[in-house]
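Technical appendix A lists one of the benchmark inputs used to test multi-chain prediction within the project. The record comprises two sequence entries:
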Amino acid sequence: MNRFILRLPFLAVLIITLFFTQNNLRSQQFGKLRGFVSDSLSGEVLAFGNAYIEALKIGAYTDENGAFLINKIPAGKNYSVIISYVGYESKTVNALISSNKITVIKVALNPVGFAMQQIEKIGKKIIGKNATDIGLERIDVRKLEILPKGVEADVFRSLQFLPGVRSTGDVSARYYVRGGASNQNLVLLNGITVYNPFHALGLFSIIDPDMINSVEFYKGGFTSEYGGRLSSVLSIVSKDGNKNNFGLKASSSFLSAKALVEGPVPNGSFMITARKNYSNYVLKKFLNDKEAPVEFYDVSYKLNYANPDMLKNGKFVFFGFLSSDMLDEKDPLREEFKWQNNLIGFRWIQFYDTPLFTEVGISTSGFLGEVKPNLSNALERYNKISDLTMHTDATYIFDSKDELAVGANFKLINSELYLENQKGAVSDVSTSSGNFSLYAKYKFLRSENFGIDVGSRINLTGMNKQGGSFFPEPRISFTYRVIPEIALKGAWGIYQQELATISDENEVISLFEPWVITPDYLKPSRAIHYTGGLEFNFWGNTKFTIEGYYKVLQNLPIVNDKKVFSSDPDLVAGSGESYGWEFLYNINYNRISFTSSYSLSWAFTEVDDWVYYPKYDSRNSVNLSLEYNLGGGWTASAVWIYSSGLPFTQLIGFYDKTYFGSFYDEWYLSLDERPFSILGDKNVGRLPDYHRLDLGVSYKFALFAANFSVDASIINVYDRNNIFYFERDTGERVNMLPFLPTATIKMEL
Amino acid sequence: MKKEICVLIIASGLFGLSCSDDLNPTGDFKEKYILNLVMRGDTTLQYATLSSNYSVGGFDPYENTTDPAVSGADIRVWQGDSVYVFEETTVPRSADSRYSGDKIAYKNNSFALERYGRPIEVEVVLPHGKKLKGYSKTPEPIEFDLQNALSVPSEKDFFYFKWNTYEGQVYFEPRFIFNYVVSDGMNKESKTKIVPSRYHEVDGNIEPYFPKPSNNPLFSLSKAALDSAMIDISRGNSQKQNYTIYNAYMEVLVYDKSLTSYYVSTNQALDGFSVKVDATDYTNIEGGLGVFASYRKQSLKVKLLRNYIESFGYKAGVPD
């Protein structure tokens, strides 16, 4: 096995050489077309748009940089290239293709009124025929604006509408993907890991939707450029900022006020966003009317510089993000809380005169979470994690349409943790380690009806001693279009995670998940994904997919609830298994867009030979969403969510527990005894089913020189009493969000 | 357009009735017994309580008014080769107890903690023969850091008492006291004043702060708190010369590991906002619930300076 792995680089070089040779031989009569697609008003790149040459019935998607490349175009001719993007007027441009050259076009699309937003991407059926995209969802940022916003539009909460993605209730933006825990989800902002992407006790994500350009979400089976997590990848790319004009957007909801400033700079653009909460009225609704004086803000900034005189087809991006949450009741008898994320990154993106694209980047990401007890009974907790990451990626597209992508990633991580558990045992761990990994993948896309992405990630060094070095993570994803209307898709892969969180699964509101490098007494956790599915495209405006998955999780770090002594391990090894089926149906007809999904799933966790359902295991879930463009600037939407009951641990009786006060007193003469619940086997019971209907209406209008958008939503229209949890000592039922009307107003200059 | 909005609103009205499902959070009842026995290192009088669990028809455990205390059990504690047998007795209940009559308890008046770090063991034989067992280890000693305040006050605003422990991460319950005698010529009354660590403001009021048990091997005493305590003892009495102040003591109760774990599980919370559905319950009783543990008291004599005592008008009962 190892000898084979050692030979892999040589085989890769051989394959590359062969294909380059093939490329050169064939490229004599052909040319290539590279394009960059952007918004005509702002200059913002348009990711995941379509470029299509109708005469040849070939095309390509734009990537996250708004770039596309179409290979193997017969040279010496002028071609009409149709560029299309949802919500924009399609544009046809002529391109003269020269032999053995890359012709470059830059296309700016004009945004259209809201009434036209359901235009289908032209050529979509042909371009995407063999895309190896099982498990991949591209979240339409415009859809985020249409769906009922609730309190704040939130990409994390929008994920929960997807089949296979679960939450444990209205009160948390945490999500669980295909039976995996929330700490198995990788969240990337401009390629930088975000360790704690939550505001306000986990109620909202820190990602302001106004800053988002594109969102990609892998529910599983993700390919080898991504590593470090077991279950899912959420990759968010922020906007570059308006390259043509200065602009200001300001908006306010019941929770926060925010602003976005953007504009051109010489050879580039900038964008700055800021958001700050100003009211806790809504937070109280989330927290069962409990006062939580949380103060939070987030700030992001991005600067792009692309000077063709200095570097042709190159771009430099400098990005930063800071979020901070404080909870301080200004009372020495109460504890204080602090959470911070701090991200800074620099990237150099370069397109060459050959079909080669490279990216080099360096970034840091830090998270700090702290609970200061002051004079309260709260337990002290402190967690700080910081990483330094350097990466380089290169993608080469062959004439045959095949793609080769290689990359290297070097990450140094330092983690500090201090916490005392509820049995008085202390964890005081400080570790530093590094991971150097390489990946290579080859996408066979030469066949119109078949595409396969084969690759592997190789960890040359491990952060965890038991992980060892040279651990390969091979991955395959394929699509086979059986007939034009039906595609068979599948994926398989091995995944490794060397970071763990010490988070107690029994906490339904968890303030933060402290991150640590997986301790050396445990092996790094690993997962194997098996995914298969069918995609049906019988009509141009509908899509129906069925996906089945099976996931095996090994060496899961699970909080050791038997830790009594400080020398006891914080984590013990467990395992997990999950499987299920997901069905998704989407139709866009005229002014209506309707999406429905159903998932049937099972999840299990095993610790100490005891198998139980994790807290996010729900057997059935249904999501229905309807968007209706009423015209005249009005849109309406409705979302109905159903999921069968989540597991909980039943009460099997009470006993009078003694609470000792001071032992300087005669404790036995003034016994403080209070009822305490005795629990049965873990998670054997099931809570009642959850369902909720949200409605939203939005109106856009212009007034003087400004564009306004007013959104009104009603959460839980029929005031369903969805149970959140019950107090174990009193049996009191605590429900999730009640009927709650909210509104947001946005102004754009 | 307005018509369409109206349709949406009416449609939503169809769901206008609030609804919810009933939930029965209870499973099958299983009988369990609870032993609480903390061996005190500052006395020979030891008490144990023994009770059973119970169920109620609904969710409210306060509906149970039947005393769950267990009578007729045999409780024995072993320390080294010695065995100590507990006898059944009763202790008074608090006035707000939902149970009537005195509480059944078990006591022994001859147990004294022997050496440090020694194993102790309890065995309970219930009336129907079921056994409960518990093991613990008496606390290791602490050593006061004598480089710190042995005589107070000095010029500092705070005095720190530190100690070292051989056993990490056990809890300590510290307090600072001084002894004094009030004499009115006819009678003498010995008293002890517990000095707060400091005073702080709570809701606009100045309140004393006494440190709670914690794993922090340090006690800080503010000079202002000591001043206030000195003033406090004779508040309302102008005859300051009737007060004689003697030595002060830094006292520390050292919990053993079992008592530490039990104390933390019952008195400490993660924080005021985390919600945990399966609350932590610690027990070291085999076959049941509750705790079997011990603590020991250690003291450090601290000299209050004569001129400091006299500055309040009191007599100093300490040598120069």
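The mean pLDDT of chain A is 86. Chain A touches chain B through 100 residues (CB under 8 Å). Comparable benchmark entries are summarised in Table A2.
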